[in-house]
Please model this.
Amino acid sequence: MGTIVFFYFASVIVVTAALVVALRSPVFSALALLVMFFHVAGLFVTLHAEFLAVIQILVYAGAILVLYLFVVMLLNLKGEVRFHHQLTVGLFLGCMLFAEAVLLVVKGKTSLGANLPDLREPTQLIQGNTESIGELLYSTYLFPFEIASLILLVAMVGAVILTKKGILEAKS
Amino acid sequence: MDTGIRLALTFGQIGAVMVAVLLTVAALTLLERKVLGWMQDRMGPMEVGPYGILQPVADGLKLFFKEDIIPAGANKFMFSMAPVLSLVPALIGFAVIPFGPDWTIDVGGVAFKPFVITDINIGILYILAFASIGAYGIILGGWSSNSKYSLLGGLRAAAQLISYELNVGLSIVGVLLLSSSLSLVTITNAQAGGFWNWYFFGGGGFPQAVAFVVFIISAIAETNRTPFDLPEAESELVAGFFTEYSGMRFAFFFLAEYGNMILVSCVATVLFFGGWHAPLEFLQGPESLHWLTGMMWFTIKVYGFLFLFFWIRATLPRLRYDQLMRFGWKVLLPIALGNIVLTAIVAYLFPGN
Model:
């Protein structure tokens, strides 16, 4: 049962992820991305990581993708002026990556799925997973966590400077 | 067998909650017009039925039999999807709201909680997540209509929902810090025993009154009600994102707006005003009657908030768009953040208070 559910979510994720880049209309691309986010959240639920699942929807689907849609609608992009002329470069890079992956598997140094945790038997946490994620973030992963917040701060300062550019130049 | 009983019970429960919510919506359409009428010194609808009480039935029938028009040049698929995308998130949030006592009864070997559909341990985040999904219905409805007014309404809605969603999320963090739980059932249970235990009045050590004000203002903005009804400002945008909608598709947007109002009132009741608990212990009645008094107090509080929505609509004029943005980001957001810092300090210094 768990395997069927996993393959359902995984296949929908792959298909919709491909649709995001393949569809002509940017609005439909954004919607394909929305479906993908929901299925990633579904994968988290099957792993008993409800907190991550909800945060996935709240942050990515609820905030970031809405902003994407906002920009797409504001610019009123037509299908033609998009990235499809990069097809040759993309195809070249894709073939390279695919060949690399095939080589790695064939050579046998990395076998797919060997190091993956067992999907069917998720460890039941004694405390809720909100608490455990919080504890992990503020103990084991404190440094990367703080670095991430620093990067966000830099991005924020950058955004402020970009919007204030004209004003600052006018003053000096 | 157990699975069958569980399925039947859950579906029954979902059906009961949906019927209750939709009946409340029907009642609200009449109540809103009546309340607005009284506040403006007139009678409100009086024609259909005695004292106008059959008006919702007439409205429903009218919407049901209206012609369904899809404008030329509209994106048909998106145009039909948008009302559904708007309504489903508005109704799905009720799954985690506890309407009455936290009882577990045994039905044919299946543990069953009669007053909450499911008590997941991240209940409040679940509601926030689906509330944020509701924006898609509005944005796509505006975009797919192929109309300038609709598009402008959709764009406004997108910006407004993102700004105020943040404030809703931050304003409830204080309550979550004090209750140290995300489950609405646990949060309700922590507020038992009298109104001084409600988080609004200082249950848990630090009054969340300021947070509540931020929450209710942001909630009004998120449900697109006056004075924050810029996405559907009729004096500027005809009807905003649903200008082109008619008949049942329009009714879906309408139901979504009122469903969201009820959901927000339920969340405010649960987080700040003790959910189904009575303000004083003796008003709760004997243990065996808790289901009745619990539901009664819950309903009274929810209708109190719904009345507040109408009251504000009758009182305040609409904000301008730049005022709306400035107010959200430069006034409400710092207040909500300050409340989190203060609450965290108090919760750290006086734990388990």
